[in-house]
Structure formats: structure tokens, C-alpha cells
Specification:
With about 725 residues, this protein is an alpha/beta fold. The chain is built from 32 helices and 21 strands. Helices cover about 45% and strands about 15% of the residues. Strands 9, 10, 11, 12, 13, 14, 15 and 16 form an eight-stranded mixed β-sheet that branches.
């Protein structure tokens, strides 16, 4: 009750998996409105997924039926910031009709920049996906392009980043576009540069709530601090043991240091679990107890006992898939719904064997993290038309559709228009409108350009006149896109038509849920959808997903697969901090299960075309007693259980992870500046050394793609790069 009724000041709620944190949060919000008469619009609640935000709104509405929940500021970091920017971004030099670019749009921008700079990925020695990730990482740490340029980097990758990052930012500004990271970054810039806006929003929010606080990064931390500073009523909910997004910039110290940041903060623990059986929780507690960076808590439940947790050590990864699917068929035959079953794995590459086996058995499944609906070509094409109507300066969307369907406007013409626009500092749409003035554009082509301009003008008028769904249907027809697909006799194009029908249905659903919704509101909400937001409880198939994607989900029967050294924990977990992150990931996987948990691994797994021997994961050993162990081998060994124990003993953490290998790096003594090669992280450089008492060295290494890593010399298996 304290977690609900104690509302003033700062509070940290340490909420274990399945402990009902959403219920506590929503009850607290409802209590503020009902008992303390706090106006709904003066409460801010931030979540990490749209699905969580929607659930939070629904739960508050259920407790306060008379309340218009849309008055509450409940949403993700990105949607809350987008809402603020739509109102005030013109104060920092953008138009309010800005477009939000996804990863594909970002890649298109970078490709155009490479072309204009007469260079390529190969010439720069980089991959654009790595550049996009690096730009995101820098933005999340609030490092502007000027700082990267000023550092005068010597490494190939960083040198390429110093070239591309500033040009990328200029191009986004020209296109009146923001990427996902910009939504938070520009909101912070707005608060920094416009005191009136800062005062307005810090005054507005009397109470600030943050869910999943353990996953916040530097920018999100700064945003929370700014918005809660005035009234200092801040309630954060999180679980250190579920902090699994370090690779996205999440900083576990935000939650570890909460009581340092707010010395008067109260801490409340939610340790009763309402999801899983005690057998499942016992294993999860034992595993996570091996972590040092955590705050002590022990999950418990009234749901004592339950099915034993099974661990099967299979001979191969193919047999692992067969075992899992055989168990699914067994439970399906007993009446379990497929939608209540999930197969979890550490990497997307592991899904293939499970997919193959499920298809062989005719079992439907949904692949969470596969090709997203909104990433399909036809959906992106239609969406691009809609984006141009809202934001005519969106060059990426314009280039995508100016000749789709074919209009006789070729790449040469687009290049001439782009060059002329760049020279005269126009948007591409302005160049299209003035096509007859562009050198090299003939009369016939100029007429075709004017026809395209008229199409966009007509659609813009229709967007004002028609309800949202009717407009989108009309846009699909007037652009000629529907006719283009109907003329085709290919099955692929028939499928595209079906996908467009589904797209229109999604618009209709959105309009039903958001009465009077505008086109730009729809586009914004669609662009902010995450993959896990689309995991629908009404799906009829087995769910396949990585453990990262499984966060926030729960199923009656969960298979946690690939529990092998080098896979789970990952081969990249080369120091204690990274191993702790992998252990938290294992904890998340185990606690997705409501009734039944099935663990598995393989003694050999196909890698790079051939089978490689694998040892059981150290996490299996850490689970201790309570596992029902089974093992199969290609030789049908009689002493299967003894062999499992022998393999487990061979993977003891002290032997596998911390004991130096005397044969590796024995004769090498590294110095600052040495160029080195690591088997996983690639080429890098030694930037700091520390001699240890045992003759070993602690090395700080810099790698272009993964940043700084701190490891023992005997542990790292390094080679000098000649």
C-alpha cells in the first residue's frame, strides 16, 4: 500500500519480474486523481513500448471510468518527446510537420551522401549499418558531430564517422526530418535553448512516473531530471536484474545510483511474483544471485511447486529443434493453445532450425523480429506518398515514389534535380516544381514533373477534405499504385495488394481508436511502433523470438534454447560486466514462463558450415539442484546423467572464465599504441596498460566498431597486428 499512497518526493520501486508493477503504477496514478484531485494533464508517465503505454491507459480507465484518459500524458520516451516537438520545435529551427526517419530512411540518406562525396562503403572501409549504430550511440551520449570532427580521429572507422556524421545531420535538417534518437535529443535542445518551453513543461508535470528505469540511457536520464526538477515528485519503477539493453546505451548506474542522486528517496521492494511457479523462480533466483551489480531481492510466490524445470542436452542443434517441436505437439495434444507457447533464443540466426521443424510438422508460428509489416516495399511506398503530403521537404520519400509507378522520370532526371536543388539550396520538391528551369530537363520531362506536382497537390487537398481511411484508399487509387499491381499477373504483386488491403484496415482501426485523427498523427504513431508492440495475444501460432524481444511478454510454456558456452552466454561476454549482462538476460528468459519451463542446449552446433563442439552454459551449473536433466548422444551412452555432470564440471566459471590460459599471450607484453587483433572484436589498439602482481596485464583496448574494452591479457587471446 505504501508504494501506492506515498506520493510526495522521490521513490524507487524495485519490482521483480511478474510482481505486478503495472498494477502498482496505475493504481498510484488513479489514487492521485481520485483522492488528491490532481488534474490528469499534470501527470506524466513514461514507458518503453507503446504496448505498455496502451495497457497503462486501459488500466487507469478501468479504475476511473469517468476520466478522459487522453488527458493523461502516458507514452514512450519517443512519443512524449514527439508530442512536445510537434507543438514547439519551430523554436529551434524546424517545421512542425517534420518527418520521422526509420533505419531504412537513414540508410538512404547515407547512400546519397556517399554518392555526392564520390566515395563508397568499400573505399571508406565501413558498413552503413555500423555508421547508423555509431551515430545513434553518439547521440545517446549527447556527443555532437562537431566533437567527433574536433577529435581528429586516426582510425578508419572513426575517420569515416567524422566525415559522414556532420553531413548526415545537415541532410536531415534540410529534409525537415528527425531520426528516433533526435526525438529525445531535440526535446533536450528545445529545453536548453528555449527557457519558456522549459518552464512550461517543468511547471506542468506535478508528478512524473518512469517504468523500466533500469533501461534508461544518458539522454533519457537527463530528460527525466529536467521534467521532475520543479516539483520533485518522481517515482521510478525498475528491476536491475532485467537490465539487458547495454548495447543500446542503457546505463545500469542510473538505477544503481538513484539513492545517491536523490538522497531523500524512499525504496520499496515488490518481491511477490504473480506469474510463475516457485520451481521456476527458484532457478531464476539462484542464477541472478551470482551477479554483484544488483540490489538484493528474492522473488517468491503463493504458486508453490509446479512442473519440474526440464533441461535436455541434445547431441546436435537439429535434434534440439526436434525435441522442442515434439514437446509442443505433446502439449498441443493436451489442449494447450499455440499462442501460449514461446521459443526463445540468444541470436536471430538460431531460429532457422526451429522454423524448419515447425513447418515440417505443420505448426503455425510467428517470427517476432522478422520482416516487419511496415518494412515491406509496398507499405513503405504508400507511406512515402503520405509523408510527402505532410512534409514536402522530405527528399527521401520523394525520391522513393516520384517514378513509382513508372512516370517516365528516370534516375538521370532525379540526379539533375537533386544537383540543382543542392546548388540553389532548395528542397527537391521545389526543384520538381521548377523542373523547366533545371539544365538538362527537357520539355516532355518537365511536363511529367508538373503532372506529379498536380497529383501531390490534389492529394494534399483531399487529405484536408476526407476522413483518414477514405483518404488513404483514395491515395492508393489516385497514385496509380493499385492499378499497377492489378495489371501484374505475378503472385508477388497479388500478395502486395493483400498487404495494402491490410494497411488500409490498420488505418481504419487506428481511426476507430483515435476519433478525428489526422494524417500526421497516424504517420507519427506508426513510425514509433516497435516490433514487440505488434506481438498480439490473439495470434494463433507459436512465438519465436530472441530473449531481448521477449522482454515484457509471458507464456504458459517457454523454451529457452541454445544454453551453451559461447552462445548463451555470448562469446562476446569477455569481461565480468558483460557476463553479468548475459546473466540478467538469462534471468529475463527464465521469468517469461508462467507454468512450464524447458531448457535445452546442444553438444555440437553447426557454425560456418561445419559442426563445432559446444559445452553446456555456465548458467546451467549456477541453477544447481532442481533441474530435471536428460541427455541424448549419437552413441547412446548408458551413463548419460554422469556425462552431463562431467560436461558441467568442465565449464566451471572459475576454470572457463577467470583462469588464465598459460599458452596464450605468455610471451607478449603489450604497450600503449600497439595494434592488435581480437577474434571477435577485430582490429584495435592498446590505449592503456596496467601491470598486475601476478605478471599479467590489464589492458584497455579500443576497437572501431565496439568501442573500449577492458580485459586481462591472459584472458583476451590477442595477436599483434603486424
Amino acid at each position: 500500500m505504501e508504494a501506492v499512497t506515498d506520493t510526495e518526493g522521490q521513490m524507487l520501486i524495485l519490482a521483480g519480474a511478474g510482481s505486478g508493477k503495472t498494477r502498482v503504477l496505475t493504481t498510484k496514478i488513479a489514487w492521485l486523481i481520485r483522492e488528491k484531485n490532481v488534474p490528469a494533464h499534470r501527470i506524466l508517465a513514461i514507458t518503453f513500448t507503446n504496448k505498455a503505454a496502451k495497457e497503462m491507459k486501459e488500466r487507469v480507465a478501468a479504475q476511473l471510468p469517468e476520466l478522459d484518459v487522453d488527458r493523461l500524458w502516458i507514452g514512450t520516451f519517443h512519443s512524449i518527446c514527439a508530442r512536445i516537438l510537434r507543438r514547439r520545435i519551430d523554436r529551434i529551427g524546424y517545421d512542425r510537420s517534420f518527418t520521422i526517419y526509420d533505419r531504412a530512411d537513414q540508410k538512404t540518406v547515407l547512400k546519397d551522401i556517399l554518392k555526392e562525396e564520390n566515395t563508397s562503403e568499400e573505399a571508406l572501409g565501413v558498413k552503413l549499418n555500423s555508421v547508423i549504430s555509431a551515430i545513434s550511440s553518439h547521440k545517446n551520449r549527447r556527443i555532437p558531430p562537431e566533437e567527433v570532427v574536433a577529435s581528429d580521429p586516426k582510425f578508419g572507422f572513426m575517420r569515416a564517422l567524422a566525415l559522414l556524421y556532420p553531413l548526415y545531420e545537415k541532410r536531415l535538417k534540410k529534409n525537415n526530418a528527425l531520426d528516433f534518437d533526435d526525438l529525445i535529443l531535440k526535446a533536450l535542445e528545445l529545453f536548453d535553448q528555449d527557457p519558456e518551453t522549459l518552464v512550461s513543461y517543468s511547471e506542468r508535470f506535478l508528478y512524473v512516473f518512469v517504468d523500466e528505469y533500469q533501461d534508461t540511457n544518458r539522454m533519457q536520464y537527463d530528460l527525466i531530471k529536467i521534467l521532475s526538477e520543479k516539483h520533485r515528485n518522481l517515482c521510478v519503477v525498475g528491476d536491475i536484474d532485467q537490465s539487458i539493453y547495454k548495447f543500446r546505451g542503457a546505463d545500469i548506474n542510473n538505477i544503481l545510483d538513484f539513492e545517491k542522486d536523490y538522497p531523500n528517496a524512499k525504496t520499496v521492494k515488490l518481491e511477490q511474483n504473480y506469474r510463475s511457479t516457485q520451481n521456476i523462480l527458484d532457478l531464476a533466483n539462484r542464477v541472478i544471485d551470482h551477479n554483484v551489480e544488483r540490489k538484493d531481492k528474492v522473488l517468491w510466490t503463493d504458486n508453490t511447486g509446479g512442473e519440474p524445470v526440464r533441461y535436455h542436452l541434445c547431441s546436435t542443434s537439429d535434434e534440439e529443434a526436434q525435441r522442442v517441436v515434439r514437446w509442443i505437439n505433446l502439449r498441443r495434444g493436451e489442449g494447450m493453445h499455440l499462442r501460449d507457447i514461446a521459443i526463445l533464443y540468444r541470436t536471430n540466426a538460431q531460429s532457422r532450425s526451429f522454423e524448419d521443424q515447425l513447418r515440417r510438422e505443420g505448426i503455425p508460428y510467428q517470427l517476432v523480429g522478422g520482416l516487419k509489416f511496415y518494412d515491406r516495399k509496398e507499405i513503405k511506398d504508400i507511406t512515402a506518398y503520405l509523408k510527402i503530403i505532410v512534409n514536402p521537404r522530405d527528399d527521401v520519400s520523394l525520391i522513393r515514389v516520384i517514378n513509382t509507378p513508372k512516370r517516365g522520370i528516370g534516375q538521370t532526371t532525379i540526379n539533375r534535380l537533386s544537383e540543382w536543388a543542392a546548388t540553389n539550396r532548395f528542397s527537391l520538391m521545389e526543384a520538381v516544381k521548377d523542373g523547366e528551369k533545371v539544365p538538362g530537363v527537357g520539355r516532355v520531362t518537365a511536363e511529367r514533373l508538373q503532372e506529379f506536382v498536380k497529383l501531390i497537390d490534389d492529394l494534399t487537398d483531399l487529405a484536408q477534405a476526407l476522413p483518414l481511411t477514405e483518404f488513404v484508399m483514395e491515395a492508393v487509387r489516385k497514385t496509380g499504385y493499385e492499378a499497377m499491381l492489378k495489371k501484374s499477373h505475378q503472385q508477388e504483386d497479388r500478395t502486395r495488394l493483400e498487404n495494402i488491403d491490410e494497411y488500409i484496415s490498420s488505418v481504419a482501426e487506428y481511426e476507430e481508436e483515435n476519433e478525428g485523427a489526422t494524417l500526421w498523427e497516424y504517420l507519427q504513431d506508426v513510425s514509433l511502433l516497435s516490433d514487440t508492440d505488434k506481438v498480439d495475444g490473439e495470434e494463433t501460432g507459436v512465438s519465436l523470438m530472441t530473449v531481448h524481444s521477449a522482454k515484457g511478454t509471458e507464456y504458459d510454456l517457454v523454451f529457452v534454447t541454445g544454453l551453451e558456452q559461447g552462445l548463451f552466454p555470448s562469446l562476446r561476454a569477455m569481461d565480468e560486466g558483460e557476463l553479468e549482462e548475459e546473466r540478467r538476460l538469462c534471468y529475463v528468459a527464465l521469468t517469461r514462463a508462467r507454468k512450464e519451463l524447458f531448457l535445452s542446449g546442444a553438444q555440437s552446433r553447426r557454425q560456418y558450415g561445419s559442426y563445432q563442439y559446444a559445452r553446456p552454459s555456465v548458467f546451467i551449473e549456477e541453477m544447481g539442484d532442481g533441474l530435471q536433466m536428460e541427455q541424448s548422444t549419437p552413441y547412446d551412452r548408458p551413463a548419460a546423467h554422469e556425462q552431463v555432470q562431467k560436461d558441467l564440471h568442465a565449464t566451471r566459471f572459475t576454470e572457463r572464465f577467470l583462469k588464465p590460459d598459460p599458452l596464450v599471450n605468455e610471451a607478449l607484453q603489450f604497450r600503449v599504441g600497439d595494434a592488435i587483433v581480437h577474434g571477435v572484436w577485430g582490429e584495435g589498439m592498446v590505449v592503456m596498460t596496467q601491470d598486475l602482481d601476478d605478471g599479467d596485464q590489464m589492458l584497455t583496448l579500443s576497437f572501431p566498431n565496439v568501442g573500449l574494452k577492458k580485459v586481462k591479457k591472459s584472458f583476451a587471446k590477442l595477436k599483434r597486428n603486424a
